[in-house]
């Protein structure tokens, strides 16, 4: 799962027993060599889908980490791009490694649950961050995203179809979430990272309640499952004009 340049077992153990913020500060220098970084094909597919609905002027990468989503925004936004994250370590790596040509980039340290922006963006994206928010936090998170979008702005993120019950991937995710729940019951501070709490039906309802219109786009690069449903979708939530 990890390249030779990724973190070792001892480093992962220290990170797992830290808070989310401290854990990512520690992981930041080697994060891009872990399976937690959003794969390049997903980033490329999202950029292609957004290019068909854009162009956009200004973009925000929510929970930007080391800046993978900023590279996507730089391909579809014409004026400026901003990355926001609450880990100073991740932002430091992003500043050093992510320098897309053609568009200015700003990096802001802030909590996604209290964004320090007015209605400033035409597009907000997020990749792989929602497992760090408990279900009860999502309505507030979506309200924050809506507040930083201009009228007509879009909030986009990819969603992978859940693994079928009984499959190796299903048991793997179930096992991971179970370990995290036991860890958080026994150790403080908590480290919130759950893969099975971001259920599409619940998320769609919460986006609608937050005042978004919701559209779905299949990402054809990843094909379809046996029942004909897409393996990966792009969710595009639009703030009304």
From TrEMBL:
GO biological process terms held by the UniProt record: methylation
Recorded superkingdom: Bacteria
Q: Which GO terms describe its molecular function?
A: methyltransferase activity
Q: Which UniProt keywords apply?
A: Methyltransferase, Transferase
Show where the Methyltransferase domain sits.
Answer: 60-153
One Pfam family hit: Methyltransf_25
Q: Which PANTHER family match?
A: 2-METHOXY-6-POLYPRENYL-1,4-BENZOQUINOL METHYLASE, MITOCHONDRIAL (PTHR43591:SF24), METHYLTRANSFERASE (PTHR43591)
Q: What is the recorded name of this protein?
A: Class I SAM-dependent methyltransferase
């Amino acid at each position: 799962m990890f390249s030779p340049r990724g973190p070792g077992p001892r480093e992962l153990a220290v990170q797992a027993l830290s808070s989310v913020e401290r854990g990512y500060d520690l992981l930041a220098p080697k994060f891009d060599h872990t399976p937690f970084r959003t794969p390049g094909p997903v980033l490329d597919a999202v950029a292609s889908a957004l290019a068909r609905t854009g162009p956009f002027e200004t973009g925000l990468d929510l929970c930007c980490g080391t800046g993978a989503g900023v590279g996507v925004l730089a391909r579809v936004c014409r004026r400026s791009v901003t990355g926001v994250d609450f880990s100073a370590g991740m932002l430091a790596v992003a500043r050093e490694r992510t320098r897309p040509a053609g568009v200015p980039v700003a990096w802001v340290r802030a909590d996604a649950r209290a964004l320090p922006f007015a209605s400033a963006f035409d597009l907000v994206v997020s990749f792989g961050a929602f497992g760090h928010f408990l279900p009860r936090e999502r309505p507030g998170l979506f309200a924050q995203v809506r507040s930083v979008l201009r009228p007509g702005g879009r909030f986009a993120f990819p969603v992978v179809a859940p693994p079928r019950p009984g499959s190796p991937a299903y048991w793997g995710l179930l096992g991971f979430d179970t370990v995290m729940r036991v860890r958080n019951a026994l150790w403080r501070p908590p480290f919130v990272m759950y893969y099975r709490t971001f259920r599409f039906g619940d998320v769609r309802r919460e986006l609608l309640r937050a005042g978004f219109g919701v559209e779905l786009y299949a990402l054809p690069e990843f094909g379809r499952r046996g029942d004909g449903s897409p393996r990966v979708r792009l969710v595009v939530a639009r703030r009304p004009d």
